[in-house]
Amino acid sequence: MEPVVSQPDVVSKPAKLAYSVGHVLNDLTASMWFSYLLVFYHRIVNFTNASSGYLLLIGQIADALATTFIGFESDRTRTGLFGYGRRKTWHLIGVICVVGSFPFCFNLCIDCANSDLWAQFIYYAMFIVIFQFGWSCSQITHLSMINELTHKEGERVALNSFRYAWTVASNIFVYAIASVLLGVHSGNDKTDITPADAHIFRTLTFTVVGIGLFCMIMFHIGLKESTLPAEETEHRLQLSLTASGKLKRMTWKKFLLEKEFYQCALIWMFTRVILNVTQVFLPLYIIDTISTLNRVFVAIAPLCSYVSGLIASFPMRAINKRLGRKVTMIIGIMFVLASTFLFWFIFKLQHIVRVEVTLTIACVLLGIGTSTSNICSFSLTSDLIGLNTECGAFVYGIMSFADKLANGILIATIQQFNPCKADATQKCALYYRQILSIIPGIVAILTVVMIVSIWKVNIGGNRHEMTEETKTTSMPCNNHVNDVEYDETAPLVA
């Protein structure tokens, strides 16, 4: 009998590059979605604050439901379309949906710009649901591929770091282009954004989709996925891993019975809430709280945040290896807390430093903190999945479901109670200051509590033990696994 070949220990550099750009379209569109959705729908389309928040909530609910469905179906899929690969087929479906719907989300309603707002609301909601479904297809399958490309912990951290580096680079690109467009088309009003600026968002949208589509082509051409049926690949991997009877076979039900599953899910959710809430309300904080600044800071401030996050992502592999994920994440959370302090006391510090300088420092600290904590939360989830790749998409789907739903409900609630009106300038300024300081601060503290709760836990390590269950056929997330006969002498194709 020929030996069974497991996953490679090291992913080649071309494969890492191809994988790392596979989420760029999602990253570019997500940057616009969270940073400028409320600005566009409230100040360009003239929806109320509450209606703008409901559109975001609709998108987040659609995304949350789609991630759960796609997580199941991606794991259950035997082979991809025409042998293309099960993960890449779902990823391609996502790309098509995003490219076909996103341009409509940030442009004035075609042939209905002067229609009633309820009609425009339905128009935008329809394209938002399609966009979020496609976004979920690409996100879940892209994340689940990490554990299928390699089982080496250091390589998985590297893939997560490269992936997040491109995420940060994508955000930098969006904010850089936005700052140029906002600066060039300032006109007479250099502090506010009005319906006359609709063409700026149109140009930004088409630029984002074009660059993202180019990166998707690189991903699909440059990264090869196994063409074996999913259940055969997983079975052969299990043969190599359970030869000594040390790894339990997992199902989605067994994951739901693990305490660490919920702890990691909360950590994932908290870190994403910090990132998304600050990303959504930072532009409004600049426009309404620091109203004297040029509107170009709507792009420059988050740009500073993401540049610092990009720089912080490069040494992440070495820091994780030296300090461990949990210590590294707590350090990142400390940076987040420091930034919330500056956002709150920005005016009290203006006799020491200028408001622009304080804002920049706060954004830099926020970027380092969110970059560090998000990379670590991704890595913790990867550890939770471990070698049990048969349910990888399901785990990432549930994690994403939790964070999308939490973010949607929280942001919609904030908008529902938003006091910002034409005659409520002072209330508006205080409101955004509270949102950008208190909410991320509380969530950061909750994140630390959850990290402490798993301090001595070996995430995913409790499955490496001899059990009677590993000796029998267990039904994994892929329900077709028992219908296939395996040639145990054939090598595993990674």
UniProtKB/TrEMBL annotation:
<feature type="transmembrane region" description="Helical">
    <location>
        <begin position="20"/>
        <end position="41"/>
    </location>
</feature>
<dbReference type="GO" id="GO:0005886">
    <property type="term" value="C:plasma membrane"/>
</dbReference>
<keyword id="KW-1133">Transmembrane helix</keyword>
<keyword id="KW-0472">Membrane</keyword>
<dbReference type="GO" id="GO:0015293">
    <property type="term" value="F:symporter activity"/>
</dbReference>
<dbReference type="Pfam" id="PF13347">
    <property type="entry name" value="MFS_2"/>
</dbReference>
<feature type="transmembrane region" description="Helical">
    <location>
        <begin position="435"/>
        <end position="455"/>
    </location>
</feature>
<feature type="transmembrane region" description="Helical">
    <location>
        <begin position="393"/>
        <end position="414"/>
    </location>
</feature>
<feature type="transmembrane region" description="Helical">
    <location>
        <begin position="53"/>
        <end position="72"/>
    </location>
</feature>
<feature type="transmembrane region" description="Helical">
    <location>
        <begin position="265"/>
        <end position="287"/>
    </location>
</feature>
<protein>
    <recommendedName>
        <fullName>Major facilitator superfamily domain-containing protein 12-like</fullName>
    </recommendedName>
</protein>
<comment type="similarity">
    <text>Belongs to the major facilitator superfamily.</text>
</comment>
<feature type="transmembrane region" description="Helical">
    <location>
        <begin position="204"/>
        <end position="223"/>
    </location>
</feature>
<feature type="transmembrane region" description="Helical">
    <location>
        <begin position="164"/>
        <end position="184"/>
    </location>
</feature>
<dbReference type="InterPro" id="IPR036259">
    <property type="entry name" value="MFS_trans_sf"/>
</dbReference>
<feature type="transmembrane region" description="Helical">
    <location>
        <begin position="296"/>
        <end position="315"/>
    </location>
</feature>
<feature type="transmembrane region" description="Helical">
    <location>
        <begin position="359"/>
        <end position="381"/>
    </location>
</feature>
<keyword id="KW-0812">Transmembrane</keyword>
<dbReference type="GO" id="GO:0008643">
    <property type="term" value="P:carbohydrate transport"/>
</dbReference>
<feature type="transmembrane region" description="Helical">
    <location>
        <begin position="122"/>
        <end position="144"/>
    </location>
</feature>
<dbReference type="InterPro" id="IPR039672">
    <property type="entry name" value="MFS_2"/>
</dbReference>
<feature type="transmembrane region" description="Helical">
    <location>
        <begin position="92"/>
        <end position="110"/>
    </location>
</feature>
<feature type="transmembrane region" description="Helical">
    <location>
        <begin position="327"/>
        <end position="347"/>
    </location>
</feature>
